[in-house]
């Protein structure tokens, strides 16, 4: 039987609070502030048309729904267990999603990934915060800071 995992507070705060709240903010903007969402998503400060086509609005509502799913899954699943297997599987899936999310930013050009001094709030969320989440997931998956319930450093990384 695998030793019981003691989840460090930094992971609990990030994965159970900060990241789900951030995803809820993304859901809010994608659902209720669609024009702002699209305007702020532009790295080169381009502006979308004033009236969004119905298909664009529908796609943003579907995106908002996925942000909501992401927030609820991450919070409810991870807060219900200390199983390292469950935490690792969910965080691995989210790490794959982080990579996919960053790929969706490619049409903005390669500058979007590193010219952080030009980022607006949406770019900080869509790139910078994704970097932070992916980094936290990689640290967890690598076993950084993980100890068994009796305080021993994990040996099975």
How would you describe what is shown here?
Residues 6-145 form the DUF7704 domain. Keywords: Membrane, Transmembrane, Transmembrane helix. With 157 residues, this protein is mainly alpha-helical. It has helices spanning 9-32, 34-41, 54-79, 84-104, 121-142; strands spanning 5-6, 147-148. A two-stranded antiparallel sheet has the order 1-2. α1 (9-32) packs antiparallel against α5. The mean pLDDT is 89.
- Count the E strands: 2
Overall geometry comes to elongated
Percent range of helical residues: 55-70%
Beta-strand content: under 5%
* Biggest sheet record: 2 strands, antiparallel
Provide mean pLDDT, rounded. 89
Number of continuous helical runs: 5
Radius of gyration: 18 Å
Query: What is the total domain count?
Result: 1
Q: Stretches where pLDDT falls below 50 for ≥5 residues?
A: none
Oligomer: single chain
Structural class: mainly alpha
Order of strands in the sheet with most strands: 1-2
Task: Give the ordered list of helices and strands.
Answer: EHHHHHE
Distance separating the two termini: 16 Å
């Amino acid at each position: 039987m695998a030793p019981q995992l003691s989840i460090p507070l930094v992971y609990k705060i990030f994965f159970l609070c900060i990241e789900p709240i951030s995803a809820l903010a993304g859901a809010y903007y994608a659902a209720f502030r669609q024009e702002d969402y699209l305007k702020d998503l532009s790295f080169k400060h381009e502006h979308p048309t004033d009236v969004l086509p119905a298909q664009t609005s529908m796609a943003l509502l579907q995106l908002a729904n996925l942000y909501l799913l992401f927030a609820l899954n991450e919070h409810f699943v991870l807060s219900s267990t200390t199983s390292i297997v469950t935490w690792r599987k969910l965080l691995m899936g989210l790490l794959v999603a982080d990579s996919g999310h960053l790929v969706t930013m490619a049409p903005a050009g390669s500058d979007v990934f590193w010219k952080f001094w030009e980022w607006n709030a949406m770019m900080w969320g869509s790139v910078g915060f994704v970097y932070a989440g992916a980094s936290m997931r990689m640290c967890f998956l690598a076993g950084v800071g993980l100890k068994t319930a009796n305080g021993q450093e994990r040996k099975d990384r």
